[in-house]
Specification:
The complex is a heterodimer of chains A (about 375) and B (about 300). With about 375 residues, chain A is mostly helical. Chain A has 15 helices and eight strands. Chain A has a domain of about 240 residues. Chain A is globular and about 65 Å long. The chains are: A mainly alpha (about 375), B mainly alpha (about 300).
Chain lengths: ~375, ~300
């Protein structure tokens, strides 16, 4: 086997999560480096990376339903919202204006609300699924668009749960197995603070979610998804149950979104129902397109790019001694314009997204010095 | 009963405005198989041009109106040439997402220009006070609404004549029927694409004017009103112009009735449906209609080959 890394002698080896030892080695190096970043990176970058990891979980969700199963969903942000509000009701603090669920005077533990927020989003996803069996293509996208507006109406009007438009509520309290993240952990002289703990938690979740997606692609379900994407009538003809697998794709995708949503706003502390608007849902589609739709690594690349790029812009502007006032556009607007441009440019020039660029780079160096 | 007529009048006017945007959607979809999410953005950008010319630059209103509409048409043509042309033959959904990218570009630039204060679009009849209104047996009709209705009727008539009689209109119909066959018959399909976007841009900016004209004003949220043409198109069927008009009227009337009778509806239902429900009702209707008729009321059913 040595020296012939692309020779697979059986199917099991070819479809393994890690094809060879080298991949395993580099993967563990990557995980260790990311984990040890808590000791080096500044709070700003830690926060950005945390958000990127959580966003990538949600992006994997929409990649499952749109990239793998080919069902267009413009309402992914809604499921993120459902996850957020499930978590904040179950694990958040009740005030005079919003409700929170308590047992013996304590908010529920994360070990309970984290899965539950995923499950509740998945249940709503299952309710949407029959529509996806009836509709397909653009029409499905448009129905989910309607869903975005209906959901944001509900979000801003269900005041006991969401706090109402413009006011919002606090996100869930982070208490894992009785341990409050606010306390921090002492490692000798080094104190791991709340943000750093959330970082580690989201890194772990992100790894699990990613491995889950990778595992999905090599399972029967994953193959059924691809079959539906490539031709749903043909898939049905060879015995893939459209109803079952489309529903499963929606449920799984919503589960990912819900889990991501439950933690996403604990980083910043509060959440306003106006967050979950159309643009928010479109962001996830854009992330998947920029990263590479239908690939395992794509959503991760996309969300790292989406979150870290604005940070990079701001760092660059600070480096040039520019605070943004002298420009005609604010930094937020520059970000949005660049974001919009990237959607367009990637679709025109590199439909496989960042993953496609990575793929070509990798192959270039694999074959180096030959160009074939 | 007065309330009912008032709601009907406003609903019809709204529907007329939506139908302008909706027809643009349908034209583009028929010619290129592209669902352009950029259409609502073009509507507000058109309003922005008019406002900038008429108010900021002080050009006489009517000239500003015509100039603004033409500029939007040209902008829409440019968008087609630069961004949409390389995407011919790509999957429908990729192109739809691409138009979302265009929408983000257009609206961010526009929002930056609008700023926080509402923008006025100028007023040709200062004596009426921002287009004014008349009262017919208790029903207040704004002149802006009346003119929106008649502009829509006129545009639809002109477009119908254009498709029936003019050389380019027939070429457009041929293109939407079969692009390759049209090309083989000597029709410059590329030119037709451009023309379609030009017309769609003009219609969108007309709608944009009626959405934001008078006291409505152009704000960063005007876009949401223009976007409501989307459910209208979907209800009517993506590839049917009569469908677009009917869909727009359904949406407009729904919005009008719900806005005026929300209290009665809530009383009937027994629970509150939330403030601003009239703005969501169109989407709810689209949701329900799509479930029963996946291709809309007038759309042709999609036949798929395996």
């Amino acid at each position: 086997m040595r020296g012939r890394p692309n020779l697979y002698t059986d199917y099991k080896k070819e479809s393994a999560i890690f094809a060879n030892l080298t991949q395993k080695f580099w993967f563990s190096i990557l995980v260790l480096t990311s984990a040890s970043l808590v000791f080096f990176a500044s709070n700003y970058w830690i926060l950005l990376l945390t958000t990127a990891f959580l966003i990538s979980i949600a992006a994997w969700g929409i990649n499952i339903v749109s990239g793998f199963a080919g069902q267009i969903s413009l309402a992914h942000g809604v499921f993120v919202g459902i996850g957020t509000y499930t978590a904040s009701v179950l694990g958040g603090i009740a005030t005079t204006s919003v409700i929170g669920y308590q047992i013996l005077g304590y908010e529920l533990d994360m070990i309970i609300w984290l899965p539950l927020s995923g499950i509740s989003a998945a249940l709503i996803g299952l309710m949407i699924a029959p529509i996806s069996v009836r509709l397909k293509g653009l029409n499905l996208g448009l129905v989910t668009l309607a869903l975005v507006f209906i959901a944001s109406h509900l979000f801003s009007n269900l005041k006991p749960i969401t706090g109402g438009a413009g006011l919002g509520r606090k996100a869930a309290k982070l208490v894992l197995l009785g341990f409050d993240f606010e306390q921090g952990v002492n490692l000798g002289n080094f104190i791991l603070e709340k943000n750093q703990l959330i970082y580690l938690l989201s890194l772990a979740l992100c790894i699990f979610a990613g491995l889950g997606v990778k595992n999905l692609t090599r399972s029967k379900t994953g193959r059924a998804f691809s079959a539906i994407r490539d031709g749903d009538i043909a898939a049905e003809a060879i015995g893939v149950s459209l109803y079952k697998f489309k529903s499963f794709a929606f449920a799984l995708s919503s589960f990912y979104a819900g889990v991501a949503g439950s933690l996403l706003f604990s980083v910043s502390g509060g959440v306003d129902p106006g967050t979950f608007n159309l643009l928010y849902s479109i962001t996830f589609i854009a992330i998947v397109i920029i990263g590479g739709a239908g690939t395992v690594l794509g959503p991760l690349f996309g969300s790292l790019f989406y979150i870290l790029f604005p940070g990079a812009i701001q760092t660059a502007m600070h480096a040039f001694g520019d605070t943004g006032q002298s420009l005609a556009l604010s930094t937020g607007q520059i970000e949005r314009i660049i974001f919009g441009l990237f959607i367009i440019l990637f679709l025109i020039f590199e439909p496989r997204g960042l993953w496609g660029i990575w793929f070509r780079l990798r192959n270039y160096f694999k074959a180096w010095p030959f160009s074939y | 009963m007065t309330l009912f007529f008032q709601a009907t009048a406003e609903g019809l006017a709204l529907g007329a405005v939506y139908s302008l945007v909706a027809i643009g959607f349908v034209l583009i979809y028929k010619a290129m198989d592209v669902l352009s999410f950029a259409q609502p953005a073009l509507a507000v950008v058109g309003a922005g041009f008019i406002s900038s010319l008429a108010v900021d630059r002080g050009i006489p209103f009517w000239i500003a109106l015509i100039l603004g509409i033409l500029i939007t048409g040209v902008l829409s043509l440019l968008i087609e040439r630069t961004f949409l042309r390389p995407m011919v033959g790509e999957p429908v959904f990729s192109v739809a997402i691409l138009t979302i990218g265009i929408d983000i570009l257009l609206r961010t630039t526009l929002d930056n220009w609008i700023g926080l204060n509402p923008r006025y679009l100028g007023d040709p009849f200062p004596s009426f006070g921002n287009f004014g209104s008349i009262t017919v047996s208790g029903v207040t009709l704004k002149y802006l609404e009346i003119s929106a209705f008649f502009t829509a009727v006129l545009s639809i008539t002109l477009l119908t004549l254009f498709f029936k009689k003019s050389k380019y209109g027939v070429a457009m119909r041929a293109t939407s029927y079969d692009q390759e066959a049209a090309l083989a018959q000597g029709i410059d399909v590329g030119k037709i694409f451009g023309l379609v976007w030009f017309i769609a841009g003009i219609l969108a900016s007309l709608a944009g004017f009626f959405i934001t004209g008078g006291f409505n004003t152009l704000t960063q949220f005007s876009f949401i009103s223009a976007l409501r043409a989307l459910p209208a198109v979907v209800i009517g069927g993506l590839d049917s112009i009569p469908g677009a008009v009917v869909g727009s009227l359904i949406i407009g009337l729904t919005q009008g009735y719900v806005a005026y009778f929300q209290l009665n509806i809530e009383e009937f239902l027994g629970f509150s449906i939330g403030s601003g429900f009239s703005l969501v009702a169109p989407y709810l209707i689209m949701f329900v209609i799509l479930l029963f008729k996946p291709d809309g009321l007038f759309g042709t059913e999609e036949v798929e080959r395996v």
